[in-house]
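Example 3.2
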Amino acid sequence: MLSGARLLLADRDERAASAAAEALLNHGVAHVHTVGSTAAFLEAGRRPPSSVRAWDIAVWDTGLGGDDDALTEFLDQWYAQNPGVPVVVTDETPSTRRALAALRGRAADMVERDDLPGLVAAVTRARHATPAHPAPVPEQKRVSMLVIGAHPDDVEIGAGGVIHLRADDGWDITVLTLSHGAGGGDPERRGDEAQRAAQIMGARLVMEDLPDGSMTDDSATVRIIERTVAEARPDVVLVHSDSDTHQDHRAVHRATLVACRRVPRLACYQSPSATVSYHPNRFVGLSESDLEAKLAAIRAHGSQSGSRWYLDEDLLRSTARYWGRFSQARYAEPLEVIRDATPLGFFAGDHA
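Structure, written as tokens:
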């Protein structure tokens, strides 16, 4: 509920601002102050009306000016003068690129400008969330992890050991594979192989059917990922890195950042096609049984394991051994943590 909330709203059009204010007031907001420019918005942030002690939340329209870099700079300026006051960004036609700019600026959410129910829902979420310090996962709640890959065998290569380790720890693990890998073999067979591999690791598999080799980070891909996010309700998400020469991997990474914008913990695993720009900052130690489960899961992809150099078991074992030098275990898998919005760091138990 929004009962008692004090809200600052900026929109380029006075009638649109009034309609948004009315919708918010009808849902319990105590006070809405509207302005028509970014300058007035920032000024009101510095000096709220005398009848209002401070703002609880703000809404800002991207149509007030600026490109994606300007959006990020504006949000940085807002949070510098109003720490702890979340901003919901509205946009005429939200795009993945604009949403990523809003995420970089730590916007609480982005919604379509004329979607008043969506605006009310976004403001409600932001009002009751604490993005800077989300509550730690209660001990009695099983941790949920979602691992996303573009093709069958992607997550096994990058995070198969971590998946098995966390499944043994009692976590609920969902693997989302966004294609059946038609570019690398028979799609039906590859789907069966992915199912067996997930069972070996202790995960539940969700498979989609995006085109292998031509995935995009558009709103359709985002919505597909959002469906599994809504079902799995993950506490942690692992996905490809953006530092990757494979176009599908980059597209899935970018779409995941948008689809998982409200998931507090997100990290990237290493793919064989990752570039030297991939910079891991956490190393998850693996036991011998975790590594063997990873190798067994990869062997389940029989249509690929005999013909792909990166699936060679000696290479996989030596790679895990190399990363182990950064942890207190013999073997390890690397993660590039993008977001860990917990007071002490959810990944703190792994080695930096």
